[in-house]
Amino acid sequence: MKHAAPFIGLALFSAVLIALSGCDDDIKIVDKEIVVENTQLKIVEVPTPIIVKVPEGAAPDIQLGTRPYFLINDMQQSPLKEQLASCNEGPFYRTDFSIGHRGAPMQYPEHTKESYIAAARMGAGIVECDVTFTNDKELVCRHSQCDLHTTTNILAIPELAAKCNVPFTPADPVNDIAASAKCCTSDISLAEFLTLEGKMDGANSKATTVAQYLQGTPSWRTDLYSAHGTLLTHKQSIELFKELGVKMTPELKAPQVSMPFNGFTQMQYAQKMLDEYTQLNVEPSRVYPQSFNLEDVKYWINTNPEFADRSVYLDGRDDNAGFDPNNADTWQPSMAELVNQGVKIIAPPIWMLLSINSDQKIVPSKYAVNAKAAGLNIITWSLERSGPLENGGGYYYQSITDVINNDGDMMNVVDVLAQDVGVIGIFSDWPATVSYYASCKKMPASI
User: Fold this and answer.
1) 423 HSE (CA, 13 A, CB side)
2) Which long-range contacts (C-beta less than 8 Å, at least 24 apart) are formed by 268-274?
């Protein structure tokens, strides 16, 4: 069989000569011996590139921009830095590990259409709408029921500013009194809410005029993309997220008005939020409802079983005096008790999950170890919210301040959270950072 091909070729060659001889009598056929030598077949192994398959609908055309590269370049030399640097050509894709915290509010006004779109383009597989309500009991996306004076232009609209819970009061530098105001979604109707424009969160406490008060953006953020922030109702956010192909994590915000509010009870509020997903034909598997109020979470678990497995208990117990993430006696209920109550996902701030060991390395806290041992999944918040980390990172890094001194340390934190703590998702004010890491580590694509 090895020499069949050469002999077939010889036969065909002779047939051609015979055929040609019939066409020209001057052609003389000369018989010659043809020797076919054995040939050696050599197999050469060619390295096969590793290809990450991105499922259809997983949005492979993610745009991460330059920030992740800046952070990686800022890292101290390490195997992690080398690995992350080796991924500079991607592929980058959307993952549920990357969660858009209020969208992408490091540079876009939080909870606006523009901020949400930016988060999705940066690879966030899940995007957050914090949910509160207007005075006609309609649900809207705002981080707090009473933050309109710092996140919108309401004070610049006299007829709406007049409805604010606390009107603008200019600063009094002589008596060292800061400027103040308090404007709530519950002060205005849904129609009035939708006339507002979102701005970067912040206020100038030294302001003597409304115009000055509205100019309070922290120096490490930007106003470049805040000219016309588009505010959304909760339902509008759902429709946008469906269009963007992302999953959704609504947070039921604590009311800052007495409940019931004009007959609107806390249970009705919690149920209305989930009902709007059902009304808009969203699969419960694409929704991660959250609340700092454990009673809200238990209500969803006990009355809305289709949403139970993804209901998230946001753990804010660090507000309690004496709280210590390395002392289980200071956080009650225990992890086991939470599991017995039906909780499957817990979401504390980053610092509660991390400690420093005797070698000055970042390691999981006892809180993190106990949560995993109890069978809880963990989500954490919020990366890229502290500004430059040269001074230790503030609130979100308080347990590891001693080993944080540059922005590149954020990637080390993400790595410990992912590999050692085992979190299933990280909220970030700039999702591209987490998306780069997740894609480089070949985490599952969001579908």
Assistant:
1) 31
2) 269/133, 270/296, 270/299, 270/300, 271/299, 271/303, 271/304, 272/139, 273/131, 273/139, 273/234, 274/300, 274/304, 274/307
pLDDT tens across 379-405, in order? 999 999 999 999 899 999 999 999 999
Predicted pLDDT of residue 351: 98
How far is residue 165 from each of residues 155, 161, 201, 427, measured CA to CA in Å?
A: 12, 9, 19, 31
Q: Are strands 166-169 and 180-182 parallel, antiparallel or unpaired?
A: antiparallel
Tell me the C-alpha to C-alpha distance, in Å, between residue 182 and each of 105, 204, 231, 271: 21, 14, 18, 27
Intervals of the chain under pLDDT 70? 1-60
Dist. CA 145–CA 128, nearest whole Å: 16
For the question of whether the overall pTM of this predicted structure is more than 0.90, the answer is: no
Contact (Cβ atoms closer than 8 angstroms) between residue 125 and residue 447: no
Whether 315 and 281 have beta carbons less than 8 Å apart is answered as no
d(CA 157, CA 202): 18
What tokens appear for 64 in the block? 């991460």
Q: Which amino acid, 179?
A: A
For residue 237, give both structure tokens: 């956010």
| Angle at alpha carbon of residue 229, lines to 227 and 232, rounded to 5° | 170
Closest CA to 115 of 126, 129, 99, 102: 102
The label of the residue with tokens 């002779």 reads 14
